[in-house]
Amino acid sequence: MSLLRDLQYSIRLLRKTPVHTATTLFVMVLGLSLYLASYTFAKVRDDKPMPFPDGERFVVLKTIAPLTGFDEWRGSNLDLYTFERLRSSSDNYSVLAAVQLSLATVSDDRSYARQFRAATLSVDFLAATQVSPMLGRIFTQQDAAVEADNVAIISYTLWQDYYAADPDIIGRISSINGQLHNIIGVMPQGFTFPIREHLLLPLRLGNALQPNQGGRASLAGILRPGVTLQAAQVELLTLVDQLVEEFPESYTPKEVLVAPYAQAIGSGINGPQNAGFMMLSFAYLVLALTVVNLSTLLFMRSTSRKQELAVRATMGAGGFELAKQVLLESALLCLTGMVLSLALSRVLVNMMFGSAAGRSFWETTELDLQTVLVALAVTTVIWLNAGLIVAYRAWKTAPGNLLSDSNKGSGSGGKGTASKVIVGVEVVLSCFLLFITGAMIVLLTRTAVTDPGTNTADTAFAKFNLSHLGTSDLSRQLVFVDDLIREVGELPGINAAAVTSAPPARSGRYGTYQLEQYLGTERNEELPDQSTIWVTNNYFAAIGVDLMEGRGFDSSDTSSSAKVVIITDEFARQLCPQESPLGKTINTKV
């Protein structure tokens, strides 16, 4: 019988059993597509090189929040003094850059203002990508001079959406955060950097930066050839420890990490427990259950054809022909399921990442050759696992014995033992899968229903960056904040307005605390690191929170008055478990 006739015969058999065929395809497509989607998700978020020259040496330098284990790279975790110290002393980087991420308001037309993701960054970091702008030029060292004119580079999307693809965009003067900027370049379509920023500004540093002055930044760099991540990390940790020793009032010990750029930006979590790793681990379990289920379905389908195979054997069909017929039917199912799984996995990956605007440009979700090969390998395992045993028995068993086995029915010992083993494995995997799924549901539910302690339904938040005011004068910054609160509070529908360094339920900067009355005694122990935020006087009134005891901040609390803090009830119990913390003095390092 020719291969074409065998294929036609297998298709007819599948059409005669639509329930079995549909069930098998459903199980395979669901399980394999979930695995492929998770595999692609993890691969995109892996430590792959950036799509630039020397892309494998692009790294980020970040600190780790002591309580949560989350990285603080996007939160501008180091000050510019630390950046300058590292840049002047390190030989490990061909480029070391500081990056400040924020939202910037573009108001080229006073009647039409919009906010865009913006990055103020070292000019040589953008040049290191070697990506040429579509229009205009990129930054030069002259643009980083303090006395230079304000310039900006915009993304293709910003140029299209806000400026309506103005062909004369180069040289156009636009208002960005209230200051006039000359637009000098438009980056190519799809290019957003350092993460998903559409507006780039040059970082300008003063000549005499002091500890904790000049603002904070996220650090990134390009390692020199031969420099390892471990060597760069040890160097950064050594510098952080030196700063703590030299300026104990300004710096606290930090856990640091130097990680590949794409992996660190994508994961957002320290160590291997990132989203991609967790999803891939979960998908491995789903894949194992899928393989077992499919193997069961296809194995039972193959064994149900024993009588037919026995009849064909007695009529002269050879062992090879019988084995080929058994494997061909399952191959058709598996290949069809693989094609459908690849299509569905593409949809699932897009759902995981959201729209293209919600991911970095290097996080491509196209199905590449590696993903197709993985799908083919998994499909082959399923196919062989399901049909190889029956095919081998059909090939090697004599026709008389094969016909005799087919008359024994489903109670044969070999088939019964195999069925029991398969069912047992299915039960174990299913129970484990249910346990993991339940744990994930509980975790996600608790995360989703976290109570921030305020009425968030009537609360709106907007972000701004004081570094874009063009001044480091604290008094001028405070005047801006006061004016902002007053103007926002006077808007229709606004009952109260306040400013904070972090909204409710979000962590701030971590620091260490000591109770002053125990300094020099046996109880001179640092309490666990605490998250610290800065707020304006009316913050608690604006979010509708009443203090349990004591008073809130007021106009008497200024930069020249005695320093005061408000602490949480949980921290109060740690600080003074047997008495009220009111009036106590603590030493802080934040």
UniProtKB/TrEMBL annotation:
An annotated Gene Ontology molecular function: transmembrane transporter activity
Main location (coarse class): membrane
Domain ABC3 transporter permease C-terminal: 281-397
GO cellular component: plasma membrane
Transmembrane spans: 21-42, 277-299, 326-349, 369-392, 421-444
MacB-like periplasmic core domain residues: 78-236, 480-587
Pfam families membership: FtsX, MacB_PCD
Keyword list, A-Z: Cell membrane, Membrane, Transmembrane, Transmembrane helix
Zinc listed as a keyword: no
Localization of this protein: Cell membrane
Record bears the keyword Cell membrane: yes
Alphabetized InterPro entries for the sequence: ABC3_permease_C, MacB_PCD, Macrolide_Exporter_MacB
Membrane topology, as annotated: Multi-pass membrane protein
Family: Belongs to the ABC-4 integral membrane protein family.
Protein name: ABC3 transporter permease protein domain-containing protein
Organism expressing this protein natively: SAR86 cluster bacterium
